[in-house]
Design brief:
By secondary structure, the chain is mostly helical. 76% of the residues lie in helices and 0% in strands.
């Protein structure tokens, strides 16, 4: 019987700590020494898992999407009936969007888009978010009577992503209260979803 791959296991164990560190300190201020200290391992252990700090950061960007995907998948599996999957996602995000601070990883990545690996990781992350949101919007509109209102699902998905970004900027800068962020996502998101406010 083959032994389990300890590197993959260790990567899964350490990645949430790596992501939290990048979320707190950003890309440039995070050192591999600080990552090792927070992970409670020697730096050489980190370098066995990832070849360099940039690849640790790229993994953190992927982690941002995977965390959302896991939460959304669980939420979508629980179908209480009555509301569409898109409505459930929007309601959930209006209450919880940005609460873990992982958006700061994405913000840090924006200042590094001249690096092709970081740029590719961000493009991949946004493309995957867009695809998932677009599918839910299209399914919602096909289920809801008269749901053809509003811009096409592909454009609407980008607008919803933009709302999430603005909610995170509002949180980070302190220019939107918790209540205002919830309303932004719920009401503006609801209008985008099917052409009416919630």
């Amino acid at each position: 019987m083959a032994r389990p791959n300890r590197i993959d296991e260790k990567r899964r164990e350490l990645l949430p700590i790596v992501a939290r560190t990048f979320a707190e300190l950003g890309y440039r201020r995070t050192t591999t020494a600080e990552l090792a200290r927070r992970c409670e391992v020697r730096e050489n252990i980190l370098y066995r898992i990832w070849p360099d700090k940039k690849q640790m950061f790229v993994a953190a960007i992927e982690f941002v999407f995977e965390q959302s995907r896991a939460i959304w998948t669980a939420l979508l599996a629980d179908d209480p009936g009555g509301s569409t999957a898109a409505e459930r996602l929007l309601e959930y995000e209006s209450r919880h969007h940005g609460e873990f601070g992982y958006y700061r990883i994405v913000f840090a990545g924006w200042s590094e888009t001249d690096d092709p690996d970081i740029r590719a990781a961000l493009v991949n992350m946004y493309t995957r978010y867009h695809r998932l949101i677009r599918r839910q919007i299209a399914a919602h509109r096909s289920r809801v009577a008269g749901g053809a209102d509003g811009p096409p699902p592909a454009l609407t998905a980008w607008a919803v992503l933009g709302l999430g970004t603005m909610a995170n900027i509002g949180r980070e800068l302190g220019v939107l209260s918790d209540r205002a962020r919830r309303r932004l996502l719920a009401e503006a998101g609801g209008w985008l979803l099917d052409g009416r406010s919630r």
